[in-house]
Design a protein that fits this description.
Helix content: over 70%
CATH architecture of the largest domain: Orthogonal Bundle
Radius of gyration: 25 Å
Shape: elongated
Number of domains: 2
Distance between the termini: 74 Å
Number of strands: 0
CATH class of the largest domain: Mainly Alpha
Number of helices: 9
CATH topology of the largest domain: Rna Polymerase Sigma Factor, Chain: A
Order of helices and strands: HHHHHHHHH
Length: 198
């Protein structure tokens, strides 16, 4: 670390006592280190300063759990990397694209579509889609219905569903895959019936 005069233990004691000056000193001392870690694990849709700030929030929230068994720098590194990995996982669960991620032709097409003010789906289409979804959910087992609702309609992460249901993460993923396959089959059967009657 650049500051040879920094006394970690004294600073930690003062932070624990609520000394804001000591907290700023801790932040100033470790900011370059945390920023470097954040840059090396930076999710695509978050700025390095925002990520660094999130890391320091977690550090200060969990500082009382630091036991002193490992160097403070190692503990901070672990908090920083875990925060970055959590953000990367969240980004993977809910992908988001920026216009800069697309080539010029695709960007232009997206802008043209966004400029169209008319919603192509009529209120009748939206009502029909909602009815169809309700019918398909009703045909699933209670467990599958719960899982589809939590995972896809409420967009809860697998970890949270695991905590709520007690099901293993693997079982959640397999059950979700099978439930989606059942719903896809139901949708195809409904589409085939409508083609026959129309």
């Amino acid at each position: 670390m650049p500051d040879e005069e920094f006394d970690e233990q004294a600073c930690l004691r003062r932070v624990a006592e609520g000394d804001e000056h000591a907290a700023r000193e801790l932040l100033r001392h470790f900011h370059p280190f945390v920023l470097k870690l954040a840059r090396s694990h930076l999710p695509r849709r978050i700025s390095e300063e925002d990520l660094t700030q999130m890391i320091f929030i977690r550090i200060f929230q969990n500082l009382d759990s630091y036991s002193g068994k490992v160097p403070l720098e190692h503990w901070i590194s672990r908090v920083a990397v875990n925060t970055c990995l959590n953000e990367l996982r969240a980004e993977k669960r809910r992908p988001e694209w920026r216009m800069a991620d697309f080539d010029e032709e695709t960007s232009a097409a997206i802008e043209r579509l966004a400029a169209i003010e008319i919603d192509l789906a009529s209120p009748d289409d939206a009502r029909r889609a909602k009815e169809l979804l309700t019918q398909m959910l009703a045909q699933l087992s209670p467990e599958d219905r719960l899982l589809v609702t939590l995972l896809h309609l409420e967009e809860r992460p697998v970890q949270e569903i695991h905590a709520l249901t007690g099901w293993s993460r693997t079982a959640i993923k397999v059950r979700a895959f099978r439930a989606r396959a059942k719903m896809k089959k139901m949708l195809q059967q409904t589409a085939n019936r409508e083609m026959i009657f129309n």
